[in-house]
Design a protein that fits this description.
Elements lengths: L7 H9 L3 E3 L2 H26 L12 E8 L5 E8 L13
Antiparallel strand pairs: 1-3, 2-3
């Protein structure tokens, strides 16, 4: 970061838009049901497109996944997390 003359205040907005945040366990089942319904709409749209019929709008949903995270004691637990931005896998600030 120093070679690029970037300071932590410059990078914070970028870093806050990526990564994972905890997703409530109680809401995970409901969200997965919505994902399943969305997948059914996508399948219907494939058939409608092939038959040249109008397609239904596909609902936009947040991306959640199960991930292994560590608690305060260092024990690994499985929990649901919300992916803030699924496009960014790696950021390289060198020589920008």
């Amino acid at each position: 970061m120093a070679k690029c003359d970037l300071k932590s205040d410059d990078i914070k907005p970028i870093l806050q838009s990526i990564g994972r945040i905890p997703f409530p366990e109680a809401e995970a089942e409901q969200h997965l049901a919505k994902c399943k319904a969305r997948d059914q709409v996508v399948e219907k749209n494939k058939k409608a497109k092939a038959a040249k019929k109008p397609e239904e709008p596909v609902p936009l949903l947040d991306n959640i996944e199960q991930a292994a995270i560590q608690d305060k004691d260092g024990n690994e637990i499985t929990s649901w997390v919300l992916l803030r931005n699924v496009q960014y896998k790696h950021l390289n600030f060198c020589m920008n």
